[in-house]
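A.,

Following up on our hallway conversation. Structure tokens first:
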């Protein structure tokens, strides 16, 4: 199985926005004013092109959760 592209959604205190960054390049893919706007309604899936893994971080930088798109590609979901 091919490796999924990795992304992270984290708060940037300087810009006061939530940034979706590609890992390991660190390039900003998309910015959001609010975390809630980024995490609901399939917004993250569309931003990464429907394929990849996104680590969603809290404001303090700790990982809150990780989402995999499509869900069927999540290696932890297989038994």
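Then the amino acids I'd put at each of the 79 positions:
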């Amino acid at each position: 199985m091919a490796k999924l592209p990795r992304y992270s959604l984290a708060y940037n205190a300087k810009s006061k926005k939530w940034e979706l960054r590609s890992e390991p390049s660190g390039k900003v893919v998309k910015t959001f004013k609010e975390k809630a706007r980024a995490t609901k309604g399939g917004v993250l899936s569309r931003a990464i092109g429907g394929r990849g893994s996104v680590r969603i971080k809290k404001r303090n930088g700790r990982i809150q959760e990780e989402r995999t798109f499509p869900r069927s590609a999540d290696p932890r979901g297989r038994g």
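The beta strands are 6-12, 17-23, 28-32, 52-57, 63-69. Curious whether your intuition agrees with the design.

B.
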